[in-house]
Amino acid sequence: ILTGAYFHGFLLWDDRQVEISTYGYLTQEKFFAEFIPPLLTRRFPKHHRVHPYLEALPPTTIPGLLRDFFATGTVEIDERVKFGLRAVLDGILKPMGLVKKKGNQYSLQVDPRHNELAEHFLSFLEKGPQSPDTLYWTFRKGDFGLFKHPFEVLVLALLFSGNILAYQGQRKKGLEDISRNGLQGITTLGKGEILSEDLRAAIPLHPLVPDKFRKGPFTLPSQEELWNDMKARKEREVESLQNLLQRMRWAASFQSFRNLPWDSLTQDVKDILTQWEEVKVSFPPREGLERFLSAAARDPFFPDKLRRLEELKAFFDHAERI
Fold first, then answer.
1. What pLDDT band is residue 14 in, cutting at 50, 70 and 90?
2. Based on the number of CB atoms within 10 Å of its own CB, is 308 exposed (0-12), middle (13-18) or buried (19 or more)?
3. What stretch of H or E contains 10?
4. Mean pLDDT computed over every residue of the chain
5. Radius of gyration (C-alpha) of the chain in whole angstroms
6. What region does 216 belong to: left with phi over 0, alpha with psi -120 to 50, or beta?
7. Nearest residue to 115 via CA among 86, 137, 144, 141
8. Which of 55, 166, 182, 212 could cross-link 173 (Cys pair, CB 3.0–4.6 Å)?
9. Is 298 exposed, middle or buried (0-12, 13-18, 19+ CB in 10 A)?
10. What angle do helix axes 148-160 and 116-123 make, rounded to 10 degrees?
């Protein structure tokens, strides 16, 4: 009966049936090759857009990605020992649209506006945090048909780009903890605290932002690092500007300098001081940077004022050396 059905029966397919005998005598391998791919395509219509190029992954794949890529957000494949990492980046993250490649350099890039996987994931968090297991089975049985490893890679990419946060009970798990232990112990995932795309785009243009933050991916770790840098510099920069005001008052008392625009320059210093006053050291990174970057956006002449003051400082330094 089974043999007869295999060679002469019908294949029930959704609301239709296919007569198998019209295909001739198919071996099991040819049978699977003929019928399984279209069946899976109908069941998981978006899987082909994101499926990995690697069929089997060793158990060290996720720990290796955490250590060598996710923890920094960027890696340059310039040694043979890193070729295995390149295979994983090209074979898993690239098809999922989670990495940007330039030459031998790979950078983490997760923009939900242009990545349907990330957008789909975040849509499930609109009503609140969800357990990783619930989200996994949603993706496993959904249109994307994601398996365990690609799903974990997606979660890690979203975590380290700041798009989502991980919790263990009521406690937020930090990225250092996740770098060491992976997804172990995470009970829920919620929406993240990364800056908006508009404010992230303003960072490379901000004259007070150090050069090292102007290039490469802007992730949750780099957001925290930038905020820590701004807080650490605030006291020193404010003291330098106040010292500049004193030097200006001293120079303005000389007859030979009376025609310089001291009132305008004094206002420039006060405006720059106002910018540093927006660095509220008690604020968390996202809220603090939002306030700081937004303040600069409200002053279109801010870069020009900063340039004039740098020229004034150079003038005083030169005058003192003479």
1. low
2. middle
3. strand 10-13
4. 87
5. 29
6. left
7. 144
8. 166
9. exposed
10. 80
